[in-house]
Fold these 2 entries.
Entry 1:
Amino acid sequence: MNALFTQQLTVLNAGLQSFADNITRAGGDAVALSWQPPAGGDREGGRVLASLLNHPQIEAANEQAMAQYLAAQPMLVDVMRAGEAIPALDKHKRILHAGPPIAWNDMCGPVQGAILGAILYEQWADTLEQAQALIEQGEVSFEPCHHYDAVAPMAGIISRSMPLWVVENTENSQRVFSNFNEGLGKVLRFGANGDGVIEHLQWMGTELAEAMKAMLAESGPIELKPIMAQALHMGDEVHNRNIAATGLLMKQLLPALLSTALPVEQIQRAIRFITANDHFFLNLSMAACKSMLKAAEGVPGSTMVTVMARNGVNFGIRLSGTGDTWFQAPANPVDGLFFPGYGVDDAAADLGDSAITETAGVGGFAMASSPAIVKFVGGTPADATQNSRSMQRVTIGSNPAFTLPALNFAPTAAGIDARKVLDSSVLPIINTGIAHKQAGVGQIGAGITTAPMSCFVDALSALARQISR
Amino acid sequence: MNALFTQQLTVLNAGLQSFADNITRAGGDAVALSWQPPAGGDREGGRVLASLLNHPQIEAANEQAMAQYLAAQPMLVDVMRAGEAIPALDKHKRILHAGPPIAWNDMCGPVQGAILGAILYEQWADTLEQAQALIEQGEVSFEPCHHYDAVAPMAGIISRSMPLWVVENTENSQRVFSNFNEGLGKVLRFGANGDGVIEHLQWMGTELAEAMKAMLAESGPIELKPIMAQALHMGDEVHNRNIAATGLLMKQLLPALLSTALPVEQIQRAIRFITANDHFFLNLSMAACKSMLKAAEGVPGSTMVTVMARNGVNFGIRLSGTGDTWFQAPANPVDGLFFPGYGVDDAAADLGDSAITETAGVGGFAMASSPAIVKFVGGTPADATQNSRSMQRVTIGSNPAFTLPALNFAPTAAGIDARKVLDSSVLPIINTGIAHKQAGVGQIGAGITTAPMSCFVDALSALARQISR
């Protein structure tokens, strides 16, 4: 102890910067570590975390969940009517939505608008007023897409007559689903429900669905991970930017589409729609990500995050080890770029199942692949690269199937470990579109947001109760 | 002078590193500048350069040439038979080739093989032996593509029955031409001339040409710079990597192709060919670059480089101020990656008109946009970025139409100033494919090479003789 007072000290300061400043001012030598208490200083979070770190059962469970995620081989195999793919939709007047469960009265404007539109589309009512009355009479029930292994962007509405992409993991034969991307402009996923929107959905549910199904019958199953991997080398992060992936998909499928026996006018209309929609691949990227993460679900003790999703009010997550339970918190605000004439006061809260892409290691986690996306979500290419780097701090490992040229082909950070989120106080980053809070106005911007810390604290608390030390 | 011996010196050393090392060893303080004598130490080059630096006529001429290059708006307007677009090809048995002029006996294997194939394709002879005899009798003449405002990759063969893309600069109505890309495998541009190659050329010259012409009649003119600009944000450098640009072109043109009155089988075959050929856009990128540079030709006194091209033996350049005169030197070796089983001893010398892309500020100059290309040409993404940065040292300015995400959307270096090449001793960088030196083996690798210094010295010497100081 005496030595402390007789020799020159070099101080490593973990905590407030001002402690280090004082030492430096007094002529001492101090290095201030960039350190924060776990879980952003949350006491319960810190306690739970301490009980779960270096835990043999959890390490083994995460290794298993991660291996199952990495081994997944999602293939696009078919197109089915939603009621056929998910029989519960044919049994009841039931509509699926994005994010964790939420009651009608609590839903945000775009989700309510989209549900009313889906009721018109299903011809359960002739007017918006009748549709609203039907809901108020309790005739229509609502449930998250994720409850049926489905994912859908923004409002995330799936009703029985809509066509779904069917994606099968050939490793375990599990099937997952996503709806078709409607394109931009007035669309149901942003809460629009006018005549044009419903007519467009009708065309998608009949002619387009028929063309896509016939095309896949001709082509056979399509591997989705190689398309995503190649798109990551072409400036996409396959969440908010899908222009390259859409092109690669169509390059692969066009010969099959042209080989179907369908009338050439029907093929023309399908191709016109797809070539005009740079987000066409998004829903397939989401389904592929859901497929990879479904493979990792239900491993007892695993702290790996298998779902992140938003319903326009709350952000919800699920862990592999806690199964179907949702852990929710109010969604964080979105830091983004707004289209001219709009601002943060116009924005709905963070919305959609599309954060499944970040959960699977792409999207915001792979922003280094997509420097051009900063023109859309804000920031600089250096920020994008830094985001990809920092996500390595919260993941179990990385995914060698998805590499980032700007990081010298390093694999993307993947397999979010809820413990590491608490330990580092680094929140998972999500690239997201921003919807107007009123139904039907549509997209008003895009930006970057984060998953709220308390979801992860609550999820780990629940897991800790299941686990023995 | 006495002060030199009485005070502490800090030495700035321009020249040999060992001078600085000696000072440092003696306890002095020396910074070694990374400096080289102009023109790599060439005495004649240094003398010529001194006479041309800060020369009012040259500065004004370069400003004009650069402005004309920047203002060019190349549009894809039509497809024509080569003999129709370039009447000299119908008048004589004349075949165009890549690079500067060269006599039959001096040509490399792939160019000779490709010329023999073109003679079979034109049915001027029935066998390779007859074709060879025809050439030895002096019945066939050869000329560079550039002499007719045309460009073509590798061997660069254009004969009268081949289809050409017609690209028009809407700023000045000048037209330039390029041939169609044949795809990979056994192809004429690498010197292959077997039956399959000739049959494929026949299909391209009839059915494919008809489909492309009908498609353009339906679509109207297509702006090429926006496609190139977008592809630069999608991992292409539009020389050795054209996968994104090919997709963007087809996305734009597919609806028109499907709207033609052509039989669906013909459309199917065209689409199958194009979707299987990631280099399909290369020839259009080259034509667009030729169009931009043709706009800059013939400005008296301008030291701007308007052509860089290789014939498999020599590298040739042209300056705006020296018009049609070629300045040639033996091509530099290519530093690259070889396909398995091949090495540098198998390689033909640097070949093709495709260095027109670097001359226009893309290709090797835009490598920062294409980190994934290092998997093809060698090096690391950091090298690719550094190459784009270093090209700023040899150009008059940059092209705001073409921006590089990895350099925070900086515009590409463009408008090579031959004086700056001498002054900096930095040679223009070229991404290039490597052909086997024997006709018909095909591509055996890809890599990076540079333009030889003596071309630039000779071109400036010629310009100096025209100019008064």
Entry 2:
Amino acid sequence: MDFAEDLIMIGQRAKNAARKLAFTGTETKNKALLAMAQALLDNQDAILEANVLDITAAEEKGLKKSLINRLRLTSAGIADISNAIKEVVGLPDPVGGGELWKRPNGLVIQKTMVPLGVVAMIYEARPNVTVDAAALCLKSGNACILRGGSEAIESNKVLARVISEAAEQNGIPEGAIQLIPKTDRAYALQLMRMNKYIDVIIPRGGAGLIRTVVENSTVPVIETGTGVCHAYVDLDADYEKAVSVVFNAKTQKPGVCNALETLLVHEAVAEEYLPMIGKKFKAYGVEIRGCDRVRKILDYAVPATEEDWSTEYLDLIISVKVVNSIDEALDHIYTYSTKHSETIITENYTASQRFLNEIDAAAVYVNASTRFTDGGRFGFGAEIGISTQKLHARGPMALPELTTIKYIVYGNGHIVE
Amino acid sequence: MDFAEDLIMIGQRAKNAARKLAFTGTETKNKALLAMAQALLDNQDAILEANVLDITAAEEKGLKKSLINRLRLTSAGIADISNAIKEVVGLPDPVGGGELWKRPNGLVIQKTMVPLGVVAMIYEARPNVTVDAAALCLKSGNACILRGGSEAIESNKVLARVISEAAEQNGIPEGAIQLIPKTDRAYALQLMRMNKYIDVIIPRGGAGLIRTVVENSTVPVIETGTGVCHAYVDLDADYEKAVSVVFNAKTQKPGVCNALETLLVHEAVAEEYLPMIGKKFKAYGVEIRGCDRVRKILDYAVPATEEDWSTEYLDLIISVKVVNSIDEALDHIYTYSTKHSETIITENYTASQRFLNEIDAAAVYVNASTRFTDGGRFGFGAEIGISTQKLHARGPMALPELTTIKYIVYGNGHIVE
């Protein structure tokens, strides 16, 4: 049997489910979410068994240890995933509500929020995304089609089966949560062109995955992720803040998109500041790739190439450049930024205002770590990704970003003159 | 010289302009808009001369009269276009403002609105779009790249030159308003892949143009326009409203996307209602394409084919079908709707609520004409298009839809633990 046709059927089922899900009440959705959370705990053995298959295959393929760690599930990990669903239960339902106004002719217009419809997620190794995405889509009334990476396919299949069964047994329409059981690239490409069935595709993963989706998808895409984040240490920086914020942004979790990749330092403070942060980086094993002026001050820095300025290392590496002025810093960020998160360290009012106004990014900071760009840390209670595009959503995306507008208009025989 | 390279330069100039325009104040933008409005009046002769070239070329090519009428500019038409700019001056600036909240750790987060950056508009015959789009983009702080149709190229060139010169003489950065002087398809396709320079593409025109942009663009697109709009006359309809609303929706301006294309009638009222509306349609020269049951009641109706149910006529033609129930009406609309505007005519509370809740469209109406789906009629003061997609904007788009989010975060040495 041809799987290309199966994929159309998955799309059709999702579309049918979405039609019903759009007016399924919050109580039903919450009850189903709680059942999903419980089902993960009840089926822990089956999930762990499937996960062993993925881990074994990954080890046989010789995958990197960091990747294998991302794949691995444990009892505690499953409990965390289950608890994450319970947190979604506690969040407000983004569907419904909205403003209402009356036009001079008596027509009443209500702008209300409705689900997007069918959301497809294309993601990589971590199996928890399967459950997180399904829970957020369900709470916002969307059907989801999940396409995880091949490394996690056995874990994903069991996770998706367990949660979709629990959902369907609790009033959620059949087809609301579906995993694509095949990870061939051809089917992912087919998915990206199924405009008839899918309302939006959200890719989550590395730069390569995101580029593939953006270049091939005719379905609207919400781009997430790539972050070449900068810190600029101004001539009026407080050194203590400059050391702790920059060190935190680079090292607290280097493998994520809001981690720092490039440090720009004003020439007036370079000789004092660079040795302070350099010493901390060196002790922590962070490789410094510096411009010529940095290397005159830090003899252990290796030379930065042009490519370094646009590289998202996601690792214990940082590119460092000395700049003549805030203008040079703004120009550098304008040229190399992926418009994710940028921070300035300064005590100067005008410098902070210029940075906040002139930098074009999802999040701009004064005297704080770029690592705060996160749905939870912003207070949204959840996160389905961090948008680095400008349409629809920008920055951390939570439940409201999974809805769209519907105008409801109450007339009484109104016609246009 | 290779125009492909010129197009890159246009993109670069727009990007440079957008960077400055993002923090150009409302007063400067309004002053420039007023100058643009005046410049159109001052340069009326040059505009009309150029328009004669377009009209002559169109007549020589034997274009349809309706299309030639859309191309034609007059003194009064130029005054209207000039006045439309003045109305944009009166609208609130969508840039800036927004909510602000404090996190438990003391971090203050501000969600503010900023321009999208560079907006490309791809449109067809009507030269007024050149000015409308430029004015709305300028007011919202966006640079614009305009690519109009070949039929209006001479008019568009003069219009764009006149308004961009007036803008630049009044504090607007060079390159903020640019028209692409060549209308070859190859350059339009190149534009659709200039992600480095363009933040969003908005196509305005027929279904063919919109499909081409959706299928070929890697730049994010806001889809506008196609409307296969339905009216469902319920068994509890008030006949008077049903006749006047349906007649209005079909005939008041048949060439636009919010005009009615399909009429569904409940079988219980078909024998009484169809002759009433049929008589009015017949007298007005509206062709009725009906299902078999319609044709038994209206012998002058021609047979509807399967294709008719998904056709946007934009003409004095309507497809008409008798349905057994509201469920059949909802199913029909679910199958054939382009999710633009749909209306129910009923006095029944439950039927109205089901229609409003279950129909998935940008605008759903009770007892009112679909022709109200319009930025001006909704009270938005302006309209850059009507979005029929779900991401970013849905329904009439005005100035706020030309902005995106920027999170500004005020810290005091905050780091992530």
